[in-house]
Amino acid sequence: MPDTLAQPVNHTLDVKHSRFIAHAAPIESASAAMAFFLQDVSVADATHNCWAYRHGQDYRSSDDGEPAGTAGRPILAAIDGQGFDRVMVVVTRWFGGIKLGAGGLVRAYGGAAAECLRTAPRLPLVAMARLQLVAGFEDLGALHAALPAHAAEKRDEQFDANGVRLRVELPAEQVDALKIRLRDATRDRIRIQDDPLDD
């Protein structure tokens, strides 16, 4: 799996008197990407605020007035080229009086974004899975003891006359180990189902 950023970072690049400042940040969603752009880094008096983000299969970019394809796409290519996901990059430009041409713009925007990401602290993304667990009251102790040992976090817990229905999220690589532990601890009394990652 690709990485995301461990923290927001920035990088400054000067090209023929134009100043480019790249700001990159980890994002949880497309709306978080736009919030980062609008609230944190967009500069009103800059010549251009160009950006791109990738969040899984969801991605967008903007040239913000630069010639089409010379800013947003090179920034997105830098995100993908550095092996990042769930990242937003904004490159702000102050025009210095010398035109760079289309190739120069592609190199400047893509280069500022790539260098910003190249030196950034990385955080590995972990594939997550969700399970639905149905347990009787007699197995609650074993169930609650097993969850933290496998980095499982409760998302929902509902009790009824027979026991509990619990929804948990955990690293996908921990699923089999959790199932084995619960089977062994409760003589296979806990019912376990996959819970789709849709909400």
Can you give a write-up of this model?
With 199 residues, the chain is of the alpha+beta class. 31% of the residues lie in helices and 37% in strands. The protein has helices spanning 30-41, 72-81, 101-118, 140-149, 175-186; strands spanning 3-5, 9-15, 18-26, 48-55, 58-62, 87-94, 122-124, 128-136, 153-160, 163-171, 191-194. The strands form 3 sheets. It has a 5-stranded antiparallel sheet, sandwiched between helices. The longest helix is centred in the middle third of the chain and has 18 residues, at 101-118. It starts with a strand and ends in a 5-residue tail after the last strand. The model has no long low-confidence stretch (mean pLDDT 89).
Assign the structural class, choosing from mainly alpha, mainly beta, alpha/beta, alpha+beta, or little secondary structure.
alpha+beta
The largest sheet has its strands arranged as 2-3-6-4-5
| Average predicted confidence as pLDDT | 89
Question: Runs with pLDDT <50, length 5+?
Answer: none
Total of helices: 5
Helicity range of the residues?
A: 25-40%
β-strand percent reads 35-45%
Given the C-alpha coordinates, what overall shape results?
elongated
Distance from N terminus to C terminus (CA atoms, Å) equals 21 Å
Radius of gyration over alpha carbons? Answer: 23 Å
Q: Biggest β-sheet: count, sense, barrel?
A: 5 strands, antiparallel
**What is the helix/strand order?**
EEEHEEHEHEEHEEHE
Total strand segments: 11
